[in-house]
Amino acid sequence: MKPEQRAPSVFHVKQDQRAPNVCDYEGSDYRQRFWTRERRYEDLAERQGLRRLLPPEGEAVADLGAGFGRLIELYQGYRRIFLVDYSRTLLQQARQEHLGDDRFTYIASDIRRLPLASDAFDTVLTVRVLHHLRDVPDAIAEAARVLVAGGHYLLEFANKRHLKAIVRYLLHRQGWNPFDKQPVEFAELNFDFHPAYIGHHLVEAGLRPERRLALSLFRLQLLKQGLGPRRLAGLETLAQPLASLYPLSPSVLLCSRADKPQRPRPGYFLACPYCHARIEMERQRAVCRACRLHWPEHNGIYDFKGPGQELY
Questions:
Q1: Alpha-carbon distance 300 to 22, whole Å?
Q2: Closest alpha carbon to 22 in 164, 135, 154, 184
Q3: Number of domains the chain is built from
């Protein structure tokens, strides 16, 4: 019998909908439109921050919200690499650049309901993703579930308490308070989060924050044009230790560890998003026999965006 569920509410970049819960870049030109030369500094800053906190190797890593695979080169020390995103379009772009490499698995899914096995992954990342979700605690809890005991969760989030927002608030040029701990939605499905809010939900999910980095310290167009991305990234490395003590940056990167009992690895990675039982592959579809549901596999991408079709 099909598990009871709510139809997911999704925001499509090229469509208008009411009260969306997650942003869907299906069919969009996100890679070409967003990751232009003007964002080269932000890209470098995030990469060098991840290199500092990301364990260089392991059995399996899951990038939740991987998009077109912007950060894939950082995972080369892992034996299995799972790229999860809500957009099949972006996953197909990532797949085209790594055809024939059987280390990669591509999954279209809502990260708040992952088709991944519990206690199976050494490292999980969520970078430039949470600001497009309403149900952040659910996404964090899922990341914690799939991690092995002591596994690393690297989370980047848009910082509500950043310097520009504080100045604007003090000058009465914005209505929301950057020191209030609740998220602010400054545009549809664009959220900023207070560090204390994120920290609370990490601990609640059984994740112990250990290290943090302030990111994109110099995200000003004048500086980016005047000094260039590489110089700014170099300056960020010098300023980061002090700036990370009390981040006032637009972005923050956290590294947490899964504080849970040690359990044997399950021996598989794909699992039913409802009951978490092992998924079996047959005739280009992923099957959960416990729930009697199946999901399609098209062009190398496992498609768990839908609620699943009943087995007959």
A1: 24
A2: 135
A3: 1
**Residue 308 falls inside a structural domain:** no
CA angle, residues 286, 82, 293, in degrees to nearest 5: 20
State pLDDT tens for residues 106-161.
Answer: 999 999 999 999 999 999 999 999 999 989 999 999 999 999 999 999 999 999 99
- Does 93 fall in a domain? yes
The amino acid at residue 27 is: G
What is the reported pLDDT for 3? 44
The answer to whether the beta carbons of residues 118 and 276 sit under 8 Å apart is yes
Distance of CA 183 to the CA centre of its chain: 17
Full residue range of the structural domain in which residue 122 is found: 10-267
Q: How many other C-beta atoms are found inside a 10 Å radius of the C-beta of residue 79?
A: 11
Q: Is residue 215, in this structure, part of any structural domain at all? A: yes
Helix count (H) and strand count (E) of the chain? 8, 16
CATH of the domain at 174: 3.40.50.150
CA dist 46 → 52, 103, 146, 223, 255 (Å): 10, 24, 24, 17, 13
The larger pLDDT score, comparing residue 66 to residue 32, is at 66
Quick check: 89 pLDDT over 90?
A: yes
Tell me whether residue 113 is in a domain.
yes
**Helix, strand and coil percent figures for the chain, each rounded to 5:** 30, 30, 40
Contact between residue 1 and residue 274 where contact means Cβ atoms under 8 Å apart:
no
| Predicted structure pTM score | 0.92
